[in-house]
Amino acid sequence: MATRINKYLSELGYCSRRVADKLIEEGKVTINGKITEKGTKVEKGDQVEVGGKRIKKSTKQKDIYLVFNKPVGIVCTTDRRADPNNIIDFIKYPTRIFPIGRLDKLSEGLIFLTNDGDIVNKILRARNNHEKEYIVSVNRLINRDFIQNMSNGVQILDTITKNCFVKQLGPKKFKIVLTQGLNRQIRRMCEFLGYKVQSLKRVRIMNIKLDVPTGKYREFTKEELLKLNGLLENSSKTFD
After folding, report:
1. Of 3, 35, 128, 178, which sits 20 to 30 A from 136 (CA to CA)?
2. Marked catalytic residue, from 46, 104, 211, 240
């Protein structure tokens, strides 16, 4: 059965479909020696290469799911040439893994890493309404209007952010729970209201809470993975 090239690379645990599409756009993926395009399908017996290196379909490797506490300054990219402070070189995991989603360089906290391309695609679908919780500190005193405006939606990136839960934790600190994944969303929301983020830490994704020291990781527990899969059961996958 033929498989689209981005799905093929994802199922092998080489990278996510999103990263695969980028590699294809850059002309780094070939099938049988010819540079491929998005949507091209891999047939049985085809030889797939990325950057000149053969990608072989082997026996299904063990699925890896990691909870990682990303420090400030680490970049969530699998392109090790793009930044010396990339997440892959920092963790130094013995087999190929990739992050699910992103935390910008100045942010810290919870991020998942895996070799399971299918779970990546489910979690990244913003329309699945998967909760992500953050603790944020800003540069000046928070008032009731700020909390209400953040909760009810702010105009950024040519759209209005979805209603969300926001709770004040201190004079300049608040908790926010998002179900969207807009680029630098919290920072942009604060900037729109005249505030500047001083620190931003993600402490929960869906049912999994951050519980490891900064710069450390652990594997998902069986219970966490079981519950996560249950929450993802009705999630729509990226189109094949």
Report:
1. 128
2. 104
Amino acid found at 224: E
Which CATH number covers residue 79?
3.30.70.580
Q: What CATH number is attached to the domain comprising 51?
A: 3.10.290.10
CB–CB of 66/219 below 8 Å? yes
Whole-number Å distance between alpha carbons of 11 and 58: 11
CA distance 52 to 153: 47
Q: On the CB side of 238, how many CA atoms lie within 13 Å of its CA?
A: 19
Strand ranges for the chain from DSSP E? 3-4, 29-31, 34-35, 41-42, 48-50, 53-55, 65-70, 98-100, 108-114, 132-138, 155-156, 159-160, 165-170, 173-178, 197-205, 208-209, 217-219
**Residue 114 and residue 213 share a domain:** yes
Helices (H), 28-113: 87-91
pLDDT tens digits for range 55-101: 875 545 688 999 999 999 999 988 877 788 999 999 999 888 989 88
Catalytic residue status for 89: no
Could you tell me which of 212, 199, 196 has the C-alpha nearest to residue 106? 199
* DSSP 3-state of 238: coil
Rounded Cα distance between 116 and 67, Å, is 14
> For residues 197 and 195, what is the distance between their CA atoms, to the nearest angstrom?
7
For the record, the structure tokens of 179 come out as 């179900």
